[in-house]
UniProtKB/TrEMBL annotation:
Domain G-protein coupled receptors family 1 profile stretches: 69-332
UniProt membrane topology term: Multi-pass membrane protein
Keyword terms, alphabetized: Cell membrane, Disulfide bond, G-protein coupled receptor, Glycoprotein, Membrane, Receptor, Transducer, Transmembrane, Transmembrane helix
GO MF terms, alphabetically ordered: trace-amine receptor activity
Name of this protein: Trace amine-associated receptor 1-like
Species for this entry: Paramormyrops kingsleyae
Assigned GO CC terms: plasma membrane
Amino acid sequence: MNSHWASKAQHTSSWLSNSASTMNFSRAENMVLCYESSNKSCPKHVYPATIRAPLYVFFGAAILLTVFGNLLVVFAIAHFKQLHTPTNYLVLSLAVTDLLLGAVVMPPSMVRSVETCWYLGNFLCKIHSSTDIMLCTASILHLSFISIDRYYAICQPLLYQTKITTPVSVLMILISWTLSALVGFGMVFLELNIWGIEEFYHEKVYCFGGCTLFQSLTSSSVSSTVSFYIPGFIMLGIYQKIFLVAQHQARSIQSSVSQAARPEKGKATPSKVERKATKTLAIVMGVFLSCWTPFFICNIIDPIVDYSTPPVLFDMLVWIGYLNSTFNPIVYAFFYTWFRKAFKMIILCKVFQQDSSTINLFID
């Protein structure tokens, strides 16, 4: 591995030397820097106003939708007692991760993306990167536990009430947050992302005014595999099993209904409710994988191609991943009637009425 990095360092060092020569020439041509007074400053790309304004509008709208959409999910599940179930506790915690991403991570990322510089200092850069990794990891761990919850609800319904209880759900949430915090903050503050190439990074890569997580090939491969690919494939396997069982149950129910009287219209059986919840949460998982897969593919490939991925492309893939947190409340609103009813009650301030927390959200 050392010889590999020595070869990579030599190649990249040569490339950076050429870049340094180009930079010196560009400075002579009045190239803009993040910090004009520093020789170690990152270059700054200044977008024209016709691009900056639409970017701020787009990113700002995404942030507002993310924060308020997930805030509605959190408030709805916390307020209405009918929604106090093990599954919804996991959904609430997932919404908290999306809410924190929109409120804490996305605003500084917006300024960094548009201004192409980081002006908040090295320590806050580490906090930002750590929180970013933690929330992404927490999301996929929550989705993994939700898939286990759905497996017992559909495939082992007789064991569901005893296996998936509120204490079990709380334990899943604690595991998700604890492991995610260890991965996110441990990687950044222990500098595991540049383990083995510390000298190369500090001498050839680091500059003032930048805040991107530079990873070695080993770090990007291990972190992406552990935090994304393994849980992702496990979830896909579990949901494939769930849908096979659900299809079998649907055929059995259809066969039984054809030989007996149909149930009263408007009253969904528990199996239908569980299947709809499973379908919705599977879509949430699919949206997550669709949004974050391009980034994690690029994250592994970038060190292999000597970090030649254009910064604009890398930044775009990060924002596509962020938008997953914006889409989740939209999925809930589209598929969950209880969310739409809760949303209306919150907007109309009916949640302040007496006994509003005990209202039945599952009937028209």
